[in-house]
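does this look right to u?? 4'-deoxy-4'-aminopyridoxal-5'-phosphate version
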Amino acid sequence: MPTNLEAYWMPFTANRQFKANPRLLAAAKDVHYFTPDDRPILDGTAGLWCVNAGHCRPKIVEAIQKQVAHLDYAPPFQMGHPGAFELAERLVKMMPGGHFDHVFYGNSGSEAVESALKIAIAYHRVRGEGARQRLIGRERGYHGVGFGGISVGGIAPNRKFFGSLMPGVDHLPHTHNLEHNAFTRGQPQWGTHLADELERIVTLHDASTIAAVIVEPVAGSTGVLIPPMGYLERLRTICDKYGILLIFDEVITGFGRLGASFATEYFGVVPDMVTVAKGITNGTVPMGAVFTRKGIYDTFMDAAAENAIELFHGYTYSGHPLACAAAMATLDVYEEEGLFANANHLASYWEECLHSLKGLPHVIDLRNLGLVAAIELESIPGKPGVRGMDCLQRCFDTGLLIRTTGDIIALSPPLMIQKEHIDQMFEMLAGVLKELP
Ligand code: PMP
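got this back:
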């Protein structure tokens, strides 16, 4: 145990509360974490929605160890290393339908989002439509913490301390509605029409000023908001009508979370860019990436003079050798163990177990898709988030890691999970919920 916790300024954490009562995770294996005194904690959140193959998988560990001893780093500007190209080729092949042909690397979901937004604006400019600069996000969207990401994002506390943010940003309404959709299994029926708000925004500003729309296919961080039936399809149709790029932020939904490789495949809707991170390396080495649809890369190549740099953007650690090696090994594990199929196979059992919580104290909604779920608790009047935090602490004390945003519990276990773990998870949760004041 560290003796002094003070110097570390923890992100997105109530520091004083945490430091008075620290919850430390000191080791991990497969679907468990272990506290410093070796108490197992069942990982109900795949770390932070990222450890999809389970923890400390030997193949991934060995690949990283081998890579760091062989080629630790190579500059990504004007130089390259084989692993970055091999991984990009493999990633575009993973995308269904052959719609995407290039991958741009960053180091996180936030960087993937900033990259995608910049590519969108620059894409229109190099095509001679430089007036298309406006970006449209969504209320309750989370797109990381860069200025672009918090601007298109729709979470008030993530925005309000940070000045005027990016100009020229609008937001679609979120799709969360308990009155119409509480306790829906899978995609809700109500809410498809909310996509038509895009028409209103287009009318207001004129299509010729709008670069892109960005949404999470399933909004994760703000409480697992499942898109209504036909909603994403309608966004696609409207974007096509007006020449607006559609970006799916698949930082959470990518790499098997819904039981398909990507949400794009699951919903059968093809956006123009897809941002990913997290599961791409199983959480081991930071990495983010943007997939671009056929034609986008070529547009940049065609517009720039020969020998000129086509896109003035990138990171010192874009396509880092360790991240590429980790990603290759991670994709091997996903494939060899059929983990996306396992998620798909378990989804209905997962749904049954989740909805067995209906009727327990404070539970006002249950939502699920693939291997992701939310349990929404009624807030204590005047004290939003207090009940959620109490629940998180009690789960941790019982041996289960959950994630809470306010009073919503989010669950997203490693995809290697088995029925017995799901049983344990919901048993522990039910026990905690029954006692929760
Ligand atoms: N987009 C989405 C949809 C996310 O869920 C997250 C992280 N939870 C991000 C972007 C940001 O990723 P990172 O924290 O790696 O910057």
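The mean pLDDT is 98. idk if thats expected tbh
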